Amino acid sequence: MQTEKIGFIGTGAISDAMVRGLLAEPAAVARVTISPRNAEIAQRLAADFAEVSVAADNQGVIDASDVVVLAVRPQIAKEVLGGLTFRKGQSVLSVIAATDRKTLLEWIGTDVHLVQAIPLPFVADREGVTAVFPPDSRIAALFSVMGTAVECETKEEYDLLAAASSLMSTALGIMDISAAWLEERGLTKGKGRAYIAPLFANLTQTALRSKTVPLEELSSEFATKGGLNEQVLSDFEKNGGRDALILALDRVLARIQGAKA
Ligand SMILES: NC(=O)c1ccc[n+]([C@@H]2O[C@H](COP(=O)([O-])OP(=O)(O)OC[C@H]3O[C@@H](n4cnc5c(N)ncnc54)[C@H](OP(=O)(O)O)[C@@H]3O)[C@@H](O)[C@H]2O)c1
User: Fold this and answer.
1) How far is the CA of 201 from the centre of ligand 1 (A)?
2) Do 181 and 174 touch, CB atoms closer than 8 A?
3) Which of 34, 39, 66, 165 has the smallest set of CB atoms within 10 Å of its CB?
4) Structure pTM?
């Protein structure tokens, strides 16, 4: 066990997912200290896991932990961090979105060992892919327990993966639009989703299994010349689908890169 004692400042949705992922059997850490807010989530975690204790306040989390996870919303991070004292060289993992390294270090006010990451809710089931920056074996080991860690060599790489992580709602939205279209055109209610969700899961599995085959090649493998798949892809591109997606990614990347806090 590389990390014995981990603590969370901000016990919300993502901390809940991380704690559950870390403490699933076999547990990846020995002790977890969480901040008292949100009270309901904190109480539930403490009830579900013997390894979890709720600190009296945020400083109590820092004092009890080797690795401190910062998981409050960006809007209140400055105010929360300003009142706290970290140990020099202490491992701090920030999952706070859209807040760059320099700003975080200023707010922390001590020369800590800072790493940033973008965990996704799937870490709760140990199935999340997590971007980590800069590369750090200790933090990567934690996220490898909760799925896969992708260590980024540069801030540019990290920002690109942050942009990619913004595709979740759109991916589910494509499934939603397709399932709704099927049902509006007469498919029995519920069957649209029952068909679309496994179809997308099969395609994802294909992409995961065929690691060395370029995605473009996989896409054309499903597009028989003159066939139905080729027609839909061609209509999608002709009607601006590809351009809309690239524009959306460009815009979210610009927002991420411009973000100071
Ligand atoms: N959710 C995700 O999938 C995800 C993924 C990656 C990164 N993130 C980032 O992780 C951070 C947390 O996101 P979240 O979704 O977990 O948000 P959230 O559910 O709103 O959790 C934030 C928590 O911070 C608590 N809090 C408020 N004031 C506090 C204080 N002074 N000291 C300590 N805790 C305080 C809140 O408690 P109360 O409820 O009592 O106000 C709440 O439980 C954000 O910066 C977000 O960008 C989230």
Assistant:
1) 30
2) no
3) 39
4) 0.92
